Amino acid sequence: MNRKTAGLLLMLFALLIFVTGCDKLPGRGNKENATEAGSEKDADENTETVFAVSVTEAVTGQIYNYLNVNGDVVSKTTVDTYPDVAGKVSRILVAVGDTVRKNQVVAEVDPSKPGMNYAASPVKAAITGTITSIPVEVGSMVSQQSPIVRISRMDELQIKTYVAERFISRMKLGQQALVSLDAFPGKTFMAKVVELSPMVDASSRTMDLKLDFVGSTDGVRAGMFAKIKIITEDKEGVVKIPSAAVIERFGEDYVFVIKDESSVERRKVTAGIEIDGKQEILEGLSGGETTVIRGQTLLEDGSLVKVVQKVEPLPVKDSID
Q1: Nearest to 194 by CA among 167, 160, 236
Q2: pTM of the entire predicted model
Q3: Residues 271-290: tens digit of each pLDDT
Q4: Of 74, 221, 79, which Cα lies nearest the Cα of 159?
Q5: Cα gap 4→209, rounded to integer Å
Q6: Lowest mean pLDDT across 16-30, 34-48, 105-119
Q7: For residue 166, what are the CA distances in angstroms to 72, 160, 177, 195, 217?
Q8: Which burial class, exposed, middle or buried, applies to 116 when counting CB atoms under 10 A from its CB (0-12, 13-18, 19+)?
Protein backbone atom coordinates (compact mmCIF):
# COMPACT_ATOMS: atom_id res chain seq x y z
CA MET A 1 0.00 0.00 0.00
CA ASN A 2 1.53 3.32 -0.99
CA ARG A 3 1.65 6.37 1.21
CA LYS A 4 -1.17 8.13 -0.66
CA THR A 5 -3.64 5.26 -0.23
CA ALA A 6 -2.84 4.93 3.48
CA GLY A 7 -3.54 8.63 4.08
CA LEU A 8 -6.90 8.38 2.35
CA LEU A 9 -7.98 5.43 4.52
CA LEU A 10 -6.95 7.29 7.66
CA MET A 11 -9.09 10.30 6.71
CA LEU A 12 -12.14 8.07 6.05
CA PHE A 13 -11.72 6.37 9.45
CA ALA A 14 -11.56 9.75 11.26
CA LEU A 15 -14.70 10.95 9.45
CA LEU A 16 -16.57 7.80 10.53
CA ILE A 17 -15.68 8.38 14.19
CA PHE A 18 -16.83 12.02 14.00
CA VAL A 19 -20.25 11.13 12.53
CA THR A 20 -20.84 8.40 15.11
CA GLY A 21 -20.03 10.78 17.99
CA CYS A 22 -22.45 13.46 16.77
CA ASP A 23 -25.33 10.99 16.89
CA LYS A 24 -24.74 10.56 20.61
CA LEU A 25 -24.79 14.27 21.48
CA PRO A 26 -27.63 15.50 23.84
CA GLY A 27 -30.83 16.29 21.94
CA ARG A 28 -29.93 14.13 18.98
CA GLY A 29 -31.40 10.87 20.23
CA ASN A 30 -33.89 8.72 18.46
CA LYS A 31 -36.79 10.85 17.22
CA GLU A 32 -39.28 8.09 17.98
CA ASN A 33 -38.20 7.88 21.64
CA ALA A 34 -38.50 11.63 21.99
CA THR A 35 -42.06 11.55 20.62
CA GLU A 36 -43.08 8.81 23.08
CA ALA A 37 -41.65 10.72 26.07
CA GLY A 38 -43.52 13.85 25.06
CA SER A 39 -46.79 11.97 24.79
CA GLU A 40 -46.39 10.52 28.31
CA LYS A 41 -45.71 13.99 29.72
CA ASP A 42 -48.81 15.44 28.06
CA ALA A 43 -50.90 12.57 29.44
CA ASP A 44 -49.64 13.25 33.01
CA GLU A 45 -50.48 16.95 32.71
CA ASN A 46 -54.03 16.19 31.53
CA THR A 47 -54.77 13.81 34.48
CA GLU A 48 -56.67 15.68 37.28
CA THR A 49 -56.28 14.79 40.97
CA VAL A 50 -59.26 13.09 42.60
CA PHE A 51 -59.64 13.81 46.33
CA ALA A 52 -61.11 11.32 48.81
CA VAL A 53 -63.72 13.03 51.02
CA SER A 54 -66.28 12.34 53.74
CA VAL A 55 -69.68 14.00 53.43
CA THR A 56 -72.91 14.59 55.33
CA GLU A 57 -76.27 16.17 54.64
CA ALA A 58 -77.32 19.60 55.93
CA VAL A 59 -80.51 19.44 58.01
CA THR A 60 -83.18 21.94 58.95
CA GLY A 61 -83.98 21.81 62.66
CA GLN A 62 -83.29 23.20 66.13
CA ILE A 63 -80.12 24.63 67.66
CA TYR A 64 -79.35 25.90 71.16
CA ASN A 65 -76.78 28.39 72.31
CA TYR A 66 -75.77 28.49 75.95
CA LEU A 67 -73.30 29.94 78.43
CA ASN A 68 -71.29 27.83 80.88
CA VAL A 69 -70.94 29.28 84.40
CA ASN A 70 -70.22 27.95 87.89
CA GLY A 71 -72.09 28.81 91.06
CA ASP A 72 -73.10 27.79 94.56
CA VAL A 73 -76.33 26.43 95.96
CA VAL A 74 -77.61 28.78 98.66
CA SER A 75 -80.72 29.10 100.74
CA LYS A 76 -83.27 31.49 99.34
CA THR A 77 -83.97 32.75 102.86
CA THR A 78 -81.19 33.17 105.43
CA VAL A 79 -81.60 35.21 108.60
CA ASP A 80 -79.20 36.06 111.42
CA THR A 81 -80.68 36.12 114.93
CA TYR A 82 -79.49 38.83 117.36
CA PRO A 83 -79.84 39.24 121.15
CA ASP A 84 -82.04 41.90 122.71
CA VAL A 85 -79.32 42.88 125.19
CA ALA A 86 -75.55 43.05 125.42
CA GLY A 87 -73.78 40.64 127.75
CA LYS A 88 -72.18 37.23 128.00
CA VAL A 89 -73.53 34.17 126.24
CA SER A 90 -74.54 31.85 129.09
CA ARG A 91 -76.23 29.04 127.15
CA ILE A 92 -76.49 27.78 123.57
CA LEU A 93 -79.44 25.45 123.19
CA VAL A 94 -79.04 24.32 119.56
CA ALA A 95 -76.39 22.85 117.26
CA VAL A 96 -75.61 23.33 113.57
CA GLY A 97 -78.07 21.25 111.54
CA ASP A 98 -80.90 21.43 114.08
CA THR A 99 -84.33 22.41 112.81
CA VAL A 100 -85.97 25.20 114.81
CA ARG A 101 -89.32 26.93 114.76
CA LYS A 102 -89.93 30.64 114.77
CA ASN A 103 -89.66 32.13 118.32
CA GLN A 104 -87.98 28.99 119.68
CA VAL A 105 -85.29 29.87 122.26
CA VAL A 106 -81.87 29.08 120.77
CA ALA A 107 -79.56 30.75 123.32
CA GLU A 108 -79.43 32.92 126.46
CA VAL A 109 -77.42 36.05 127.15
CA ASP A 110 -76.61 37.19 130.71
CA PRO A 111 -76.67 40.99 130.86
CA SER A 112 -75.42 41.09 134.49
CA LYS A 113 -72.64 43.49 135.47
CA PRO A 114 -70.42 43.50 138.55
CA GLY A 115 -72.68 44.19 141.50
CA MET A 116 -75.81 43.94 139.39
CA ASN A 117 -77.51 40.63 138.60
CA TYR A 118 -80.17 40.30 135.94
CA ALA A 119 -82.18 37.45 134.58
CA ALA A 120 -80.83 35.81 131.44
CA SER A 121 -82.29 37.19 128.24
CA PRO A 122 -83.54 34.56 125.76
CA VAL A 123 -82.50 34.70 122.11
CA LYS A 124 -85.36 33.50 119.89
CA ALA A 125 -85.29 32.15 116.34
CA ALA A 126 -86.40 34.77 113.84
CA ILE A 127 -87.78 32.21 111.35
CA THR A 128 -88.51 28.51 111.04
CA GLY A 129 -85.59 26.73 109.45
CA THR A 130 -82.26 25.00 109.97
CA ILE A 131 -79.33 26.25 112.01
CA THR A 132 -76.48 26.71 109.54
CA SER A 133 -74.01 28.68 111.62
CA ILE A 134 -73.27 29.54 115.28
CA PRO A 135 -70.54 32.19 115.29
CA VAL A 136 -70.33 32.51 119.12
CA GLU A 137 -69.51 30.23 122.05
CA VAL A 138 -70.65 30.04 125.64
CA GLY A 139 -68.79 32.80 127.51
CA SER A 140 -68.49 35.09 124.51
CA MET A 141 -69.25 38.75 125.10
CA VAL A 142 -71.82 40.01 122.60
CA SER A 143 -73.65 43.18 121.74
CA GLN A 144 -77.03 43.73 120.19
CA GLN A 145 -75.30 43.80 116.79
CA SER A 146 -73.67 40.39 117.28
CA PRO A 147 -75.35 37.49 115.47
CA ILE A 148 -75.89 34.49 117.73
CA VAL A 149 -77.12 31.95 115.16
CA ARG A 150 -77.82 31.88 111.42
CA ILE A 151 -81.01 30.16 110.24
CA SER A 152 -81.76 29.12 106.65
CA ARG A 153 -84.78 27.67 104.90
CA MET A 154 -83.49 24.43 103.38
CA ASP A 155 -86.72 23.84 101.49
CA GLU A 156 -86.16 27.01 99.44
CA LEU A 157 -82.87 26.69 97.57
CA GLN A 158 -81.47 28.69 94.68
CA ILE A 159 -78.18 29.11 92.85
CA LYS A 160 -76.00 32.18 93.05
CA THR A 161 -73.54 32.82 90.23
CA TYR A 162 -72.06 35.59 88.11
CA VAL A 163 -71.25 36.27 84.46
CA ALA A 164 -68.45 38.25 82.86
CA GLU A 165 -69.27 41.72 81.60
CA ARG A 166 -68.97 40.73 77.92
CA PHE A 167 -71.84 38.23 78.31
CA ILE A 168 -74.29 40.51 80.13
CA SER A 169 -76.21 41.41 76.97
CA ARG A 170 -77.12 37.72 76.54
CA MET A 171 -78.74 37.41 79.99
CA LYS A 172 -82.51 37.72 80.46
CA LEU A 173 -84.98 36.94 83.23
CA GLY A 174 -86.74 33.62 82.76
CA GLN A 175 -83.97 31.92 80.78
CA GLN A 176 -83.85 28.17 81.34
CA ALA A 177 -80.74 26.45 82.67
CA LEU A 178 -79.38 22.95 83.17
CA VAL A 179 -77.62 22.33 86.47
CA SER A 180 -75.29 19.49 87.41
CA LEU A 181 -73.97 18.80 90.92
CA ASP A 182 -70.96 16.66 91.80
CA ALA A 183 -73.04 14.92 94.48
CA PHE A 184 -75.43 13.64 91.78
CA PRO A 185 -73.30 12.35 88.87
CA GLY A 186 -75.29 11.87 85.68
CA LYS A 187 -78.32 13.77 86.98
CA THR A 188 -79.47 17.12 85.60
CA PHE A 189 -81.59 19.63 87.51
CA MET A 190 -83.60 22.35 85.80
CA ALA A 191 -83.50 26.00 86.87
CA LYS A 192 -84.42 29.44 85.58
CA VAL A 193 -82.95 32.93 85.93
CA VAL A 194 -84.97 34.93 88.48
CA GLU A 195 -82.72 37.82 89.41
CA LEU A 196 -80.17 39.98 87.57
CA SER A 197 -78.08 42.49 89.47
CA PRO A 198 -78.66 46.06 88.28
CA MET A 199 -74.94 46.76 88.65
CA VAL A 200 -71.61 45.43 87.43
CA ASP A 201 -68.93 44.85 90.04
CA ALA A 202 -66.26 47.44 89.23
CA SER A 203 -63.38 45.30 90.52
CA SER A 204 -64.26 41.90 89.01
CA ARG A 205 -66.17 43.21 85.94
CA THR A 206 -68.93 40.68 86.59
CA MET A 207 -72.67 40.77 87.22
CA ASP A 208 -74.38 38.66 89.90
CA LEU A 209 -77.45 36.63 89.05
CA LYS A 210 -79.63 34.08 90.81
CA LEU A 211 -81.53 31.05 89.56
CA ASP A 212 -84.39 29.14 91.16
CA PHE A 213 -84.60 25.37 90.88
CA VAL A 214 -87.52 24.08 88.86
CA GLY A 215 -88.85 20.76 90.15
CA SER A 216 -87.61 18.47 92.89
CA THR A 217 -84.43 19.26 94.83
CA ASP A 218 -84.43 16.16 97.04
CA GLY A 219 -80.99 15.67 98.54
CA VAL A 220 -79.66 19.03 97.39
CA ARG A 221 -78.02 21.06 100.13
CA ALA A 222 -76.87 24.63 100.50
CA GLY A 223 -73.16 25.02 99.85
CA MET A 224 -72.99 22.53 96.97
CA PHE A 225 -70.97 23.50 93.89
CA ALA A 226 -73.04 23.85 90.73
CA LYS A 227 -72.11 23.70 87.04
CA ILE A 228 -74.67 25.64 85.04
CA LYS A 229 -75.55 25.92 81.35
CA ILE A 230 -77.79 28.93 80.81
CA ILE A 231 -79.69 28.64 77.52
CA THR A 232 -79.32 32.00 75.80
CA GLU A 233 -80.89 31.06 72.43
CA ASP A 234 -83.29 28.37 71.24
CA LYS A 235 -83.86 28.57 67.47
CA GLU A 236 -86.11 26.39 65.31
CA GLY A 237 -86.08 25.86 61.54
CA VAL A 238 -82.41 26.65 61.02
CA VAL A 239 -80.00 24.98 58.59
CA LYS A 240 -77.19 23.28 60.48
CA ILE A 241 -74.14 21.19 59.66
CA PRO A 242 -71.08 19.92 61.56
CA SER A 243 -68.66 22.74 62.32
CA ALA A 244 -65.92 20.80 60.53
CA ALA A 245 -67.66 21.43 57.20
CA VAL A 246 -66.96 25.17 57.35
CA ILE A 247 -63.53 26.44 56.36
CA GLU A 248 -62.22 30.00 56.42
CA ARG A 249 -60.33 31.48 53.50
CA PHE A 250 -59.31 35.11 53.17
CA GLY A 251 -61.51 36.05 56.13
CA GLU A 252 -64.69 34.48 54.69
CA ASP A 253 -66.51 31.22 55.43
CA TYR A 254 -67.00 28.54 52.77
CA VAL A 255 -68.41 25.04 52.40
CA PHE A 256 -67.89 22.56 49.59
CA VAL A 257 -71.16 21.18 48.22
CA ILE A 258 -71.27 17.92 46.26
CA LYS A 259 -72.63 18.63 42.75
CA ASP A 260 -72.85 15.28 40.96
CA GLU A 261 -71.13 12.75 43.24
CA SER A 262 -67.82 13.41 41.51
CA SER A 263 -67.13 17.14 41.85
CA VAL A 264 -67.69 19.98 44.30
CA GLU A 265 -68.85 23.57 44.30
CA ARG A 266 -67.14 26.02 46.65
CA ARG A 267 -69.87 28.13 48.19
CA LYS A 268 -69.64 31.19 50.42
CA VAL A 269 -71.87 31.00 53.51
CA THR A 270 -72.92 33.20 56.41
CA ALA A 271 -72.41 31.39 59.73
CA GLY A 272 -74.55 31.82 62.84
CA ILE A 273 -74.46 29.96 66.16
CA GLU A 274 -71.50 27.61 66.58
CA ILE A 275 -71.69 25.32 69.62
CA ASP A 276 -70.63 21.77 70.52
CA GLY A 277 -69.44 20.95 66.99
CA LYS A 278 -72.66 22.22 65.38
CA GLN A 279 -72.82 25.20 63.03
CA GLU A 280 -75.88 27.23 62.06
CA ILE A 281 -75.85 28.49 58.45
CA LEU A 282 -77.80 31.71 57.94
CA GLU A 283 -77.22 32.07 54.17
CA GLY A 284 -75.68 30.09 51.32
CA LEU A 285 -76.84 26.54 52.08
CA SER A 286 -80.17 24.70 52.17
CA GLY A 287 -81.32 21.68 54.13
CA GLY A 288 -80.77 18.45 52.20
CA GLU A 289 -77.63 19.57 50.38
CA THR A 290 -74.57 17.38 50.83
CA THR A 291 -71.40 19.02 52.14
CA VAL A 292 -67.83 17.84 52.58
CA ILE A 293 -66.79 17.51 56.23
CA ARG A 294 -63.37 15.85 55.84
CA GLY A 295 -60.78 16.14 53.11
CA GLN A 296 -61.67 19.66 51.94
CA THR A 297 -58.40 21.37 52.87
CA LEU A 298 -56.96 21.23 49.33
CA LEU A 299 -60.24 21.46 47.43
CA GLU A 300 -61.06 24.24 44.99
CA ASP A 301 -64.22 25.05 43.07
CA GLY A 302 -64.80 22.22 40.59
CA SER A 303 -62.32 19.78 42.14
CA LEU A 304 -62.93 16.10 41.43
CA VAL A 305 -63.76 14.01 44.48
CA LYS A 306 -64.50 10.45 45.50
CA VAL A 307 -66.92 9.99 48.41
CA VAL A 308 -65.41 7.39 50.73
CA GLN A 309 -67.70 7.94 53.74
CA LYS A 310 -71.21 9.25 54.31
CA VAL A 311 -71.71 10.49 57.88
CA GLU A 312 -75.12 10.52 59.55
CA PRO A 313 -76.70 14.02 59.55
CA LEU A 314 -77.11 15.96 62.78
CA PRO A 315 -80.35 15.27 64.71
CA VAL A 316 -83.22 17.59 63.83
CA LYS A 317 -83.96 18.19 67.53
CA ASP A 318 -81.02 19.66 69.41
CA SER A 319 -79.74 18.55 72.79
CA ILE A 320 -77.32 19.94 75.35
CA ASP A 321 -74.75 17.51 76.74
Answers
A1: 160
A2: 0.73
A3: 999 999 999 999 999 999 99
A4: 74
A5: 121
A6: 16-30
A7: 21, 19, 19, 18, 31
A8: exposed
Q: How far is CA 7 from the centre of its chain?
A: 97
Cβ-in-10-Å burial (0-12, 13-18, 19+) of 33 comes to exposed
Could you tell me the domains of the chain?
50-63+235-311 (2.40.420.20), 67-74+155-234 (2.40.30.170), 78-152 (2.40.50.100)
For position 18, what pLDDT does the model report? 52
Distance, in Å, from the CA atom of 157 to the CA atom of 214, rounded to the nearest integer, reads: 10
What phi, psi does 44 have (nearest 5°)? -65, -40
Which residues does residue 268 pair with via DSSP β-bridges, in sequence order?
254
10 Å CB burial of residue 57 (0-12, 13-18, 19+) is: middle
The predicted-structure confidence for 212-224, as pLDDT tens digits, reads as follows 999 989 999 999 9
- 3-state secondary structure (DSSP) of residue 180: strand
With contact defined as beta carbons under 8 Å apart, do 270 and 283 qualify?
A: yes
